[in-house]
């Protein structure tokens, strides 16, 4: 194993840097800026059973050190994604983590089944999208519902299942433990915090959807806190995200207990960010006294 | 599409709250650019502003390798851009979007209809059209006299009618009023401006094939995030303004 | 009534700008910068029954567009506050909102009782402090407990009781409705989001307390969303806060449904901020087409 | 205490990552300042940095009305301060804290013990002491030769011994080693530097009355937020470094 590589269920990653779902499409656009096969893996945009057109516009707004989005899970549907998008990523030999969304447990199950045999490496079960009227976040805020959907998808899927947690809960460890009990192979966290911006001229919420998901550096302290707590509460590995823009942020997430990290919003500001972080990682490891990425994981905890 | 840093060679206030940037870029990059395309500008190198700002290509000077952008200070991001000093580096994604379809065009005379900060992209278009021997007539609407810019530049290329909402300069009223009163037309029209204006133009110019350039709040600016969609007229779904646009056939999308 | 004045239970405010609890001490320090009698009111630092020394240091850290704090409710105890701090504010004729904290329902009750007859205008019942090991936030995350403590303090107090809500909950409207049922006269929101920063050199949480409360512009979208939701869920008035730094932020909170606002972290960056906001408010009202502050309240909602 | 904006007249790199600011302020304000006090500096006018940074008063030039600050670039805030150009305005809370008790001092010779960025406040103190006719001896510790600054300035006022951890300049080792080897002492000592150094100094200098200047992460910087406390030695609670300090009697607080 190389200094940068990390190993998680289903994912032998050459480095721990992954673009976050919804912020990197299906990779093609960013392949204009650097060869995306350089990435540890890719988390592709959420897939639903059928094509979805998403919410009305405006769908994004800028906030202090962050942004709000209410895309509403627009995607061409899982079958089209398998047909049109996965071959490109397969050619690149880039590990694919497919983000699975739905409005009902049945839809989640159907999407997971459709992905069987498609050549992806893992499923990221999105029970935390705040931007759709039904489904999404409600699955991620009730431990029993989170347990049920995880169990069903786990039974349906032929690859490891990572469950993506919502930060909009009173105690995230309860949800994490529920999905662990349901058989989740790992956890990805955090999805966006629910927020709102009101336009002073129109006197109405700026996003057509009203609320949206807050992401970016603004939420990093919340993400670090939650990864830290969940790391102590479960045994399955965590892929951490929320506001990463620098290599120090990456190290901070690993210290908190993440085994790999995802980078979302920062891609919009700097399309080269993931590539740059991969280049910087060896130097940062050295600077902070580590010999490998694996070694950093969880080292921010008092007993390690 | 590339991410590049260009040297800010000049920044000038050319009308009320309206800044003109001239940015030096490599000639190879500049020749790739088509009128109607835009750049996605990073505000600064900190994490304070996580989103870039889309600004249209207004002009290119191939002798000095300068790209011209014109933007209005309307919010926090453009206010920061206004403060930039010459000789600083400006981080751009360039070129974004599709641009106007100049090659397929079978026209002798086209009408350019711009409103406010929708005017800049029409300028480089006008230049390219006249280079191709196509006659251009521009109708440019502004709020008020203080907002008017580039009148002489357009006049050097063809007819140009300015109108202001408050009548403080040129004609009075909307661009569609000017088109009506002056009975203007062309083989094609190209329009860029606020959505309300585009709607009015589309209705008024029904008989003429036209292209419109659209605005929407953007995330990535390169087609990856689905922030900037607009519904297609044929009910088959939506398209991305940053990637499939910003220029569309007027009857292709629902405003 | 003047253009800037707003009226809430127990609080006839000449303007809606209030420094937030814990960010303004008991007023004296800021009175060096401008006459604090200019303020709509003051929310003083949390009072507990006995003197508290708070957490170990470091107690604060900077984050992107925000900060973390884990002061841990340090205060000289309610009796000393009444004796040493309130006279100064009484001389200034500045309405006082006393922030009441505790580790047990009995302590909350005792502090409220101690404040009877002290000349304060309202109590802010702090059931949302994330920085103490017991008490604080746990009262603010369970609707039944929130109901119980509100009811007891309401019975004990001789002034209107505003309950300060925690944003670290799955559904803040449930807590808001519980405290309304318990007789709360108003709601103040939001307290800080729980966050963490890990120091890369020491490899430990930077704050001695581990977690801390995230405040500042970073959290504003979450605060606006919650004020907007609570405004639709309850009938009692809201004092809104979370990340205010500009006069536009003030208007945004009023549009979302706040009847007044509190400014916390921004005082550290700019000690004149509350004074400046008061000066700017008339111009901002005019700019956005309002004739009075009262008129703005709740105008961001679709049905108003 | 006031909030003021001063004009940055000079910014110089005087040692590795070590910047010297000279800020023009009103004479009335400058005369109020006592050695040992500090300023609380705003990083910029945006919301990116919500906390100010505490920096000690290093010197005052009453002829040119200049305040000197010296800071080391150690994180995001000081990195931004480093980028500031001359002629920009620097937003300060000034003066913060209590300063050294010069009036009550009954001394003929004092020892100044500084480490790294703890050196700056000792300079203005040394100037004031020598003005009062008190002899000063300075022991200044730095990491390495590249970090040393103000040696000549201190030498102009009295004896000055430099030591570096790695021995690349002056003596080798910690300030306490120098004190030991050179058998230095005084009627009082004043010390400022990292907590570990202060602890060693306090132990070493037990026999001599001393004052130490402390650092802690700060919020308000003016005594309102309880961020910056330190426990008192007499078990009676804690005191605020920003307001009750940053200078304390060495035996007053628990390091
Ligand atoms: C393809 C395209 C080309 C454009 N060309 C020009 C031009 O040449 N000159 C010019 O002055 N303006 C142009 N605009 C509009 C310009 O992008 C906005 O005025 C600018 O983004 C406002 O940024 P701000 O930070 O000042 O405003 P804020 O309101 O503070 O911005 C907040 C967020 O909203 C977005 N936003 C706000 N208004 C608009 C808008 N009208 N369109 C898209 N996003 C918006 C910003 O990009 C940012 O993400 C163009 C927009 C698009 C989509
Ligand atoms: C009374 C006092 C006087 C000081 N005088 C000087 C001086 O003259 N020259 C000098 O170089 N430094 C001095 N310091 C230390 C200086 O304040 C810090 O180095 C500086 O705040 C670091 O800011 P940063 O943004 O670069 O670091 P970051 O680590 O990015 O800062 C993050 C936060 O931590 C705080 N912080 C980090 N390190 C320290 C520290 N050592 N002490 C207090 N807060 C810290 C910052 O203020 C900020 O709030 C003084 C500190 C105090 C308390
Ligand atoms: C525009 C946008 C679209 C997103 N779409 C998805 C999505 O489809 N599925 C998902 O699980 N998360 C989605 N997210 C959440 C991100 O994957 C990530 O969890 C979150 O943004 C926090 O990371 P960041 O701060 O680095 O952006 C989206 C985020 C943004 C900003
Ligand atoms: C240093 C600090 C101390 C605080 N102390 C208290 C407190 O004692 N009681 C309380 O209810 N809230 C306390 N708060 C929370 C604030 O009152 C406020 O709710 C929160 O900071 C959000 O507002 P802001 O973003 O404007 O700071 C404190 C906040 C900070 C930053
Ligand atoms: S802005 Fe991301 S798809 Fe257009
Ligand atoms: S920094 Fe606020 S009390 Fe010292």
Automatic annotation (TrEMBL), chains A, C:
InterPro entries: Aldolase_TIM, DHO_dehydrogenase, DHOD_1B, Dihydroorotate_DH_1, Dihydroorotate_DH_1_2, Dihydroorotate_DH_cat, Dihydroorotate_DH_CS, Dihydroorotate_DH_I
Catalytic residues, chain numbering: 129 (nucleophile)
Every Dihydroorotate dehydrogenase catalytic domain range: 4-282
Location (main, coarse): cytoplasm
Cofactor: FMN
Gene3D superfamilies assigned to the protein according to its UniProt record, in alphabetical order: Aldolase class I
Alphabetic keyword roster: Cytoplasm, Flavoprotein, FMN, NAD, Oxidoreductase, Pyrimidine biosynthesis
Binding residues for FMN: 21, 45-46, 99, 126, 164, 190, 216, 242-243, 264-265
A GO-annotated cellular component: cytoplasm
Classification via SUPFAM superfamilies: FMN-linked oxidoreductases
GO MF terms, alphabetically ordered: dihydroorotate dehydrogenase (NAD+) activity
Compartments, as annotated in UniProt: Cytoplasm
Binding residues for substrate: 45, 69-73, 126, 191-192
UniProt xrefs under PROSITE patterns: DHODEHASE_1, DHODEHASE_2
Listed transmembrane segments: none
EC number of this enzyme: 1.3.-.-
Enzyme class of the recorded protein, top EC level: oxidoreductase
Protein's GO biological process: 'de novo' pyrimidine nucleobase biosynthetic process; 'de novo' UMP biosynthetic process
Pfam families: DHO_dh (PF01180)
Catalyzed reactions: (S)-dihydroorotate + A = orotate + AH2; (S)-dihydroorotate + NAD(+) = orotate + NADH + H(+)
Cofactor stoichiometry and binding remark: Binds 1 FMN per subunit.
Pathway: Pyrimidine metabolism; UMP biosynthesis via de novo pathway; orotate from (S)-dihydroorotate (NAD(+) route): step 1/1
Family of this protein: Belongs to the dihydroorotate dehydrogenase family. Type 1 subfamily.
Subunit structure: Heterotetramer of 2 PyrK and 2 PyrD type B subunits.
Functional note: Catalyzes the conversion of dihydroorotate to orotate with NAD(+) as electron acceptor.
Protein name: Dihydroorotate dehydrogenase
Species of the source: Streptohalobacillus salinus
Organismal lineage: Bacteria, Bacillati, Bacillota, Bacilli, Bacillales
From TrEMBL, chains B, D:
Family annotation (SUPFAM superfamilies): Ferredoxin reductase-like, C-terminal NADP-linked domain, Riboflavin synthase domain-like
Alphabetized Pfam families for the sequence: DHODB_Fe-S_bind
Superkingdom of origin: Bacteria
Binding site for FAD: 53-56, 77-78
Needed cofactors: FAD; [2Fe-2S] cluster
Keywords: 2Fe-2S, Electron transport, FAD, Flavoprotein, Iron, Iron-sulfur, Metal-binding, Pyrimidine biosynthesis, Transport
Binding site for [2Fe-2S] cluster: 220, 225, 228, 242
Protein name, per record: Dihydroorotate dehydrogenase B (NAD(+)), electron transfer subunit
Protein's organism: Streptohalobacillus salinus
Annotated gene: pyrK
